Amino acid sequence: MDESTGQNLYALTKSLLVATLTFWRGSAAPQGGTSESGGYRCFRGTDFPSPQEYKSFDELADINRDSFGQQSSDILEAIKSFTTSPTNDIDAYVLLYLLRISLILTSISEHFQSLILVMVAQESGGAGNVVGDGGLAHGLLQVQLQNPEETPVTCDPNSCTKDQILDMLQQGVYGHSDFASAEPPGIAFYLATNSPGASLRFYNTGSLTDSNDYSVTPNLKSTQSYVSDIANRLLGVAPEDFPTKQWLKEACAFQPAE
């Protein structure tokens, strides 16, 4: 590990220790309405479910299994094993270690797998060949790689290999070979020092436009409902019960992405 990476790790560790006791906060009662079909709740501002409200990994696996298609078992097994022991990358192991410190001290370590599972459901529906954002986003977690030396991983959703699934998780969860300078870094990098809601806005948009409202985006190319959508998935709202974009606009004031 070079000196620059070591300095980044030191800075990350310091900020993590300062933020540990405050970042995984629960929320007040969510604002907004409830859809008639699936119980969707409008989460605005900094509202986000507390970890104790999340459905368990096994419950969420059952809810999303059918929508993940033929390889659902492979994907679910990979998420479970990967979030325990990532690929053979020293920086990923360091980040996992720091993240575990945070999760253990705040008693929510068992919920990390659930979060990754519903992110896969939100981003790709479990299909490894999804390409979005005009060809920029790829794979299970719709990773956008800005380093020309990095190759995005995609695969046929009916014949993804175990290595391909793990590589897609690596790119979306822990970032790349140098997580401290990855552009963009994985969701675990944000979770080390931010709340789940703020981390999800960082992941979806690349920035936190308004720290007091996670639905605010710099433009309409980003999904205003993204954090609220993940929150509802964590509470057990099934894919088939999600409301329409029109309902989200009328009930929650979320503008649809362009």
Strand order of the largest sheet: 1-2
Using only C-alpha atoms, the radius of gyration works out to 17 Å
Give the H and E element order. HHHHHEEHHHHH
Write down how many β-strands occur, each being a DSSP E stretch of 2 or more residues: 2
Strand content: under 5%
Structure description:
With 258 residues, the chain is mainly alpha-helical. It has ten helices and two strands; from the N terminus they run αααααββααααα. Strands 1-2 form a two-stranded antiparallel ribbon. A hairpin with a 4-residue loop joins strand 1 and strand 2 (137-138). Helix 2 packs parallel to helix 5, helix 5 packs across helix 9 (226-234) and helix 8 crosses helix 9. It is globular and about 45 Å long.
Write the layout of secondary structure elements.
Elements: H1 3-19, H2 57-64, H3 72-82, H4 90-105, H5 112-123, E1 131-132, E2 137-138, H6 162-174, H7 187-191, H8 196-205, H9 226-234, H10 245-252
Antiparallel strand pairs: 1-2
Characterize this entry briefly.
With 258 residues, the protein is mostly helical.
What would the keywords be for this entry?
2 strands, 258 residues, mainly alpha, 2% strand, two-stranded antiparallel ribbon
